[in-house]
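Hey team,

Sharing the Polysaccharide biosynthesis protein run so nobody has to redo it. Sequence (465 residues) first:
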Amino acid sequence: MSDDTIRLVTIGRILRRRRRLLAVLTLVGALVGYGTSVLFPPRYTASASVLLPGQWEERALLTQAEIATSSAVVDRAADTLGWTGVSRGELRDRVSATAADGNIIKISGTADTPERAQRLSDQLAQQFVAFAARIAGDDTNPDAAAGPEALRQKVEQTSRRITELANAADPGRTVESVQARTELEKLRSTLQEAMKKLDQADLVTKKAGMVVMGPAARPTGEAPPTRVQLIVAGALLFFLLAVIGHLVAARVNRRLRTEAEIAAALGSALLGTVDVPAEGPALRPEGRGPRARIRRLLGVDTRWDVPAPRMSGDEAGRRIRYRRVCDRLRDRLPATRRLLVVVPDGDEIAHRAAGQLAAEAGNGPSPESSSGDCPGLRVVGISVSRPMVPDRGAESGAVVVLSAGSRTEEELVGIAEACADAGHEIAGVVVAGAVRARPARAAGRPSESAAPELAVRGHATGGSA
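Structure output:
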């Protein structure tokens, strides 16, 4: 797994073999999300719209949106509301304004109740309109509003009077008449420029005449994130963290998986690989106590990152593998020599393989072997954290049996050093693998692909032997 790419089959294997743990962690995440929603009370958001008459550029609308949430507007709204326990700075964090289509500024306020949210947004809209009118110099006095119109009429009357005076002057006969006509034209131009400036000022005043488009609607639902959203987010977060944690753990896994790596770490030769039928509960660690029961309940007492067991042959084919291991061991050592079969604790597959190997060694030589009896074997289990091998006595050597992908290189080196300290030379290494046994056939119905006994002895499933 440490050298493989993450594929969908890996994710599927995690979901299939760790479904209990993932379900529990997802439930814990949902409870954490619920607890978060209890700590943070629900919030409600209301919005009020302000219409800006006239033609406005996009940048000007954005500027007005910034003014709507400025401290000058928010502080005046806070003073008018007079809420206790809510500071001006906290109120600024609860308001927002956006420029919508159609020259509309949408002002939103968030509070702990729908009534407060509605009051906050309405007050912000009113204070914004008042502040904008104050900036533009708007005045609601009727006399002040009638002043520009009266001035415009006076300017028109003056322009007509200038025309009459220019027509009445002696056109071009004297120097004085020419100068009078020139002065009158200058006065006309000055009055026209003054009227243009007056029209521009009136346009700005009309733009500043913002209108609040009715009171804000009272919110009927909570503002995000709601309680349901927090619960779903917590469950999803814990589920993803659990899956990512499994992938990271598999990436940094340093357990040896190939026979060559295992033999090199132990400093000995590989005697062969043997098959152990996978029988579900029989391959689970035999732990005791509350922690072991919890691990079995969550389904974490077995590894998830090992491939599914391959299909095995029949019982006769599996026994041939054990006999071949005994034959190789017999060829390497004298028959009178007794050996220890060292098996790491917690490796149930290796324990079953060691027991079967010892049983085959006690059954006598294989018909294919021309040598004598196989050396006597005694199975001993050792702790990997503090390996301790019995001292050399009746047995003078060791055979290490373990399953692939169960131990790291450092752990195997520790086992080899423990054997050397006890005076035992490692005679060989046997790697055990779990396989799926074929279903038993009904009596009297031989398989169509059944082969003669010699062919069975020459062919066995599951790698080298």
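The chain has three domains: 8-40+223-251, 142-212, 259-458.

Ping me if you want the raw files.
A.
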